[in-house]
Structures are given as C-alpha cells and as structure tokens.
C-alpha cells in the first residue's frame, strides 16, 4: 500500500544540502536550494556552465569527483541528480543509513522525499505534489499560479497582505506602512511586472497617473482607496508636492500605498522626487521598475531600438522643452552627431523645432523617423516618415500624445 506524502516546508538556511550530479537536473534544482539559503555541496566530476558560474562565484562548494559516503557528513538533505541507477542507489543507501532524506531524479519510487512543483507569489509559496506524477503536479501548479496572478488576488480572496518592508518609523511606535513606486508599463495591462501586479493587489491605497492602463485599476478590490493623481489641482510642482504628501500621510497612517506610474517610474516619471520625499519622512519605499514606453513603443511598432549592423546605441530624450529654451538640458547639437537611434518622449509639440535643429547640426534629412501613438493599446497608431517630413506628417495625421518619436535607420531595419 502506498501512503500519502507528508508535506513540509524545509528551512534550509545555513544547512548543508548535498547535490550529487552536475548536469541538467542539478542545474534546475540548485537555484531554489541557494534561494533557501542552503549550504550546497555539489559532488560531480563535471559541471554545466551555469553551475560552474555559481561555483566560481563562491555560491556553492564543488567537489570535482564521484560521490563518496563521507560527502554526507553533516548533511540534512541529499538530492541525487544523476541518471546512473546503480550510482544513485548507492547514494540513497548511504543516506538511508544516516537517516537523511533523499530526493532521486532517476527513480521517484526509491526516493524518501519528492520535490514538488512550486509557484511563488511574494511571501506565499504553493507546492504541489501530483501523487507521483510530476506532469499532473505541474498542471495543477500552473492553474494555481494563474489564479493567484490574475483572478483571485484582485477580488481579495487569495493573497494575504504582507508587509515585508514595514518598519516602525516616525510614528512613535505605530506601525508605518510602505510605499511602492510601481511602473505600470506603457499601456497594455499585461505589461506590468509580476511584482508590480502583486503589490497592486495587496495595496490599501493606489495613487495612479493619467497614463496608467485603466484595466489595471478596473481590477482593484472595492475597498481600495484610489487617488487619481492627474486630478490633483494646482500647477505641476504644487501637484507633485501634494502627491508626495498623500504618499507620506497614508503610509504613516499604516497603509500599503502603491504609486502607480506609466512606463518606468524613473524615466521622466518623477519617481526620484517621490522616493526622496518618502525617505525623508521615514517611510520605507520599494521601487518596482516598469516596461518603459521608450523601448516598448518602438517595439510595438516593429522597431528594435538597436539592431546588429544598424545601431549600436540608443538615446532617450525628453522633447517637452523646445531646443532653444533656456531651461533645456539637452544638447541637441551633440545628439545630431550620433549615428544611433534617438527616442524622443513628450516631443510632439516641439517636433518641428527638434527635427529642424537635428538637421541643422548635421543629421541627414532622409533619416527614417516614426511616431508611435498610444503604443501597446487597442488604439495604437504608427506613422513612418523621414526626419525632414515627420513633423508635418504627424500634424496632417492628427497624431496626439502620448506618442514616442523614433529617429534612425532602425525604423526600417525589420522591413522585408
Ligand atoms: C511623462 S513621460 C513618462 C514616461 C514613462 N515613465 C515611461 O517610462 O514610459 C510621458 C511620455 O511617455 C510617452 N508614452 C508613455 N506611454 C506611451 C504610449 N503608450 N505610447 C506612446 N508613448 C507613450 C509619451 O512620449 C508621453 O508623452
């Protein structure tokens, strides 16, 4: 009669785990052991390049020979990752003698422990055993992962809020919340990162920009306080102060706050100012990078920002100030001398002046150029042109912000 396995979460930090074998199976198993903080001893005559890199980096101890019984001295667990059944059986015999649990890649029925299929969702780990059928375990695991990532969390059913960054700050003993500056990506709601999504589903307060994908907000729990940052009155700098204050106040009151910003928070997103404001108020801040429109918008239009033999650099520049503005920090004359790709954000209004300046300082008028409006959304529009004509063409086509302008030979690089 086969009995059910007894599930456990092994706390391996600083504990010796022996892995026998240095091939593909070991390559897959070792990262999770290292992630758990295990003291990994790898016994194998040869290693894959990935394992070799970890050994070279001092992340594990490598014994470059075949297994010997004394390798299990001090071990809490052994993973046999070799496909020679005789050799594997002799390792598991030594392990059994010493009462050390032994996972066997070659023969699950002979093993004293099984590795489950795992999905990690922030602090939550879901481990699935499929009754001896690893494919069944993976199928169930994938379904659970999808539920955690997409369905259950927004309704507040599955994911327990966690406050790994919570700290006692300037509140005199009361628990301080936290702020996460999360990049929401360029427009397609699926382009937020897994971590950004998780924090969003755990948030008590979400302070969102105009450009964040609306569908992400649509899925928030009903009890979440949603602050629309684009509706905050006063001029741009006053509004920023107001936003900083909201972030700090809510976090000091104990809330988990997500500051959700279009693209990446640090690419023309004023994320740095918000981080400084929180830090000076003693509020813990996490920054979750996002997929920036400066790369995603060209990509969505079939334009790679670099391409072998075509462009070895790309420069992202703000066009929100005209080239002759005394406040501009951009050396347009120097940019005109580059051969690579120029990606201009917030540049539609000043496009005629920008392109004229680039041409005046030496960039060829025939350089391919494109404008991508509302990239990665259902209303995306793409215009292809040349540097001397793109401003007029964009006007004729009535292109509007948000739009990214791409200048360089990469614009046509993928044309057949
Ligand atoms: C204030 S900046 C913020 C950029 C953002 N942090 C990022 O990394 O994408 C706003 C500008 O980003 C560009 N942008 C943002 N989303 C876009 C999209 N979906 N399509 C085209 N351009 C976009 C436009 O140039 C817009 O004017």
Summarize the structure in words.
There is one protein chain. This protein has helices spanning 24-35, 49-56, 85-97, 134-151, 194-202, 214-218, 236-252, 271-280, 293-300, 332-336, 351-360, 390-396; strands at 16-20, 39-43, 61-63, 75-80, 101-104, 117-121, 124-128, 178-183, 205-208, 225-228, 256-261, 285-288, 314-318, 341-345, 368-373, 381-386, 403-407. The chain folds into three domains: 16-116, Rossmann fold, CATH 3.40.50.720; 178-291, Cobalt-precorrin-4 Transmethylase, domain 1 (3-Layer(aba) Sandwich), CATH 3.40.1010.10; 294-412, Methyltransferase, Cobalt-precorrin-4 Transmethylase, Domain 2, CATH 3.30.950. The protein contains twelve helices and 17 strands. α7 crosses α8 (271-280). Helix content is 29%, strand content 20%. S-adenosylmethionine (SAM) binds next to α9, β15 and β17. Keywords: Cobalamin biosynthesis, Lyase, Methyltransferase, Multifunctional enzyme, NAD, Oxidoreductase, Porphyrin biosynthesis, S-adenosyl-L-methionine, Transferase. Its EC number is 2.1.1.107. It comes from Micromonospora orduensis. This is Uroporphyrinogen-III C-methyltransferase.
Task: Give the SSE layout.
Layout: E1 16-20, H1 24-35, E2 39-43, H2 49-56, E3 61-63, E4 75-80, H3 85-97, E5 101-104, E6 117-121, E7 124-128, H4 134-151, E8 178-183, H5 194-202, E9 205-208, H6 214-218, E10 225-228, H7 236-252, E11 256-261, H8 271-280, E12 285-288, H9 293-300, E13 314-318, H10 332-336, E14 341-345, H11 351-360, E15 368-373, E16 381-386, H12 390-396, E17 403-407
Parallel strand pairs: 1-2, 1-4, 2-3, 4-5, 8-11, 8-12, 9-10, 9-11, 13-14
Antiparallel strand pairs: 6-7, 14-17, 15-16, 15-17
The structure holds S-adenosylmethionine (SAM).
S-adenosylmethionine (SAM) binds next to helix 9, strand 15 and strand 17.
């Amino acid at each position: 009669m086969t009995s059910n396995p007894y599930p456990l979460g092994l706390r391996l930090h600083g504990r010796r785990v022996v892995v026998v074998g240095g091939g593909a199976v070991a390559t897959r198993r070792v990262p999770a052991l290292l992630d758990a903080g295990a003291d990994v001893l790898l016994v194998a005559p040869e290693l894959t390049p990935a394992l070799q890199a970890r050994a070279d980096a001092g992340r594990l101890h490598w014994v470059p020979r075949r297994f010997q019984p004394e390798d299990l001295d001090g071990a809490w667990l052994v993973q046999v990752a070799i496909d020679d059944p005789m050799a594997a059986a002799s390792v598991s015999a030594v392990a059994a003698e010493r009462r050390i649990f032994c996972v066997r890649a070659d023969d699950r029925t002979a093993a004293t422990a099984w590795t489950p299929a795992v999905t990690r969702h922030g602090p939550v780990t879901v481990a699935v055993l499929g009754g001896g059928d690893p494919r069944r375990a993976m199928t169930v695991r994938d379904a659970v992962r999808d539920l955690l990532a997409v369905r259950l969390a927004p309704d507040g059913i599955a994911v327990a809020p966690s406050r790994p960054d919570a700290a006692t700050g300037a509140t005199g003993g009361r628990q301080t919340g936290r702020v996460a500056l999360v990049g929401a990506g360029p427009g397609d709601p699926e382009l937020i990162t897994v971590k950004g999504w998780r924090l969003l589903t755990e948030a008590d307060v979400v302070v969102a920009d105009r450009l964040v994908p609306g569908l992400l907000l649509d899925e928030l729990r009903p009890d979440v306080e949603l602050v629309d940052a684009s509706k905050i009155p006063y001029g741009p700098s006053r509004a920023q102060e107001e936003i900083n204050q909201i972030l700090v106040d809510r976090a000091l009151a104990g809330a988990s706050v997500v500051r959700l910003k279009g693209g990446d928070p640090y690419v023309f997103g004023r994320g740095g100012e918000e981080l400084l404001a929180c830090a000076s108020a003693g509020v813990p801040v996490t920054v979750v990078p996002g997929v920036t429109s400066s790369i995603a918008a060209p990509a969505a239009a079939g334009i790679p920002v670099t391409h072998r033999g075509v462009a070895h650099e790309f420069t992202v520049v703000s066009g929100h100030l005209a080239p002759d503005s005394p406040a501009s920090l951009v050396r347009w004359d120097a940019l005109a001398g580059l051969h690579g790709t120029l990606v201009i954000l917030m540049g539609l209004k000043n496009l005629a002046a920008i392109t004229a300046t680039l041409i005046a300082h030496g960039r060829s008028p025939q350089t391919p150029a494109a404008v991508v409006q509302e990239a990665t959304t259902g209303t995306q529009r793409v215009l292809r042109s040349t540097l001397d004509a793109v401003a007029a063409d964009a006007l004729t086509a009535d292109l509007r912000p948000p739009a990214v302008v791409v200048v360089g030979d990469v614009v046509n690089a993928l044309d057949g």
